[in-house]
Amino acid sequence: MRSSGFTGFLGSGVLAGVVWGWIAMALNSLTGAFPYEASLASNLAGFSFAGAVFGVMASCFLFVFGRFMPFKGVLPKAVITSGGLWFFLWGFSMILAFLDSGRYHFAASQAMQGLALSLLMGAILSMVVRKGCDAQ
Amino acid sequence: MERVFTQREFLVNTVLPAVVLVATAFAVVAIFYGTDSILRGAHDAFHDFRHAIGMPCH
Questions:
Q1: A101-123 tens-digit pLDDT
Q2: Residue A23, helix vs strand vs coil
Q3: Contacts of residue B36 in chain A, CB cutoff 8 Å?
Q4: How confident is the model at residue A1 (pLDDT cuts 50, 70, 90)?
Q5: What does the alpha-carbon distance between residue A123 and residue A92 come to, in Å, rounded to a whole number?
Q6: Inter-chain contact B54–A2, Cβ cutoff 8 Å?
Q7: What's the Cα-to-Cα distance from A122 to each of A21, A77, A96, B3, rounded to whole Å?
Q8: pTM
Q9: B25 to chain A: nearest residue by CA?
Q10: Residue B49: which of A27, A46, A102 has the nearest Cβ?
Q11: Residue closest to A54 by CA, chosen among A6, A15, A4
């Protein structure tokens, strides 16, 4: 994995994150877990940017910690990395919900959707990283 | 076979990941928790995204 270089991972993270953001937007529209409040254009920009940021973070963690994981393929490493990141962030948000229940409210359907999406992010990221490695 | 790391390789593969990780960590916290104190307007800009990925919000 290291041979593809960090900049390659960054590019993969941005690409996977933007695609993932669009998929997240479409999936939420299908499931109806949260009815959108903002316009389509605003959400398209927001989901793309936020997805790219999450993708970059996941790819960074994959680049730094992937070599220490006891798996051979990129797919399990990427899925565990993105799923673990989401779970860590969600767990911390649950602490916030406990401390400030007036500000943060837990919704089980949205949390399940978020977990599934984070695992999907790992799958997309692994595909993009593998494509990047094959291209070199 | 001996491999000599150039200064550029060291920067790209060691320093850059650390810098990007810290920067994205701040961005992720601002986006995922909607903390306006870190990034003004983050709460409203990413409100629907936050709900779609299951982060608790109001």
A1: 888 888 899 999 999 999 999 99
A2: helix
A3: none
A4: low
A5: 24
A6: no
A7: 13, 8, 26, 32
A8: 0.88
A9: A57
A10: A46
A11: A15
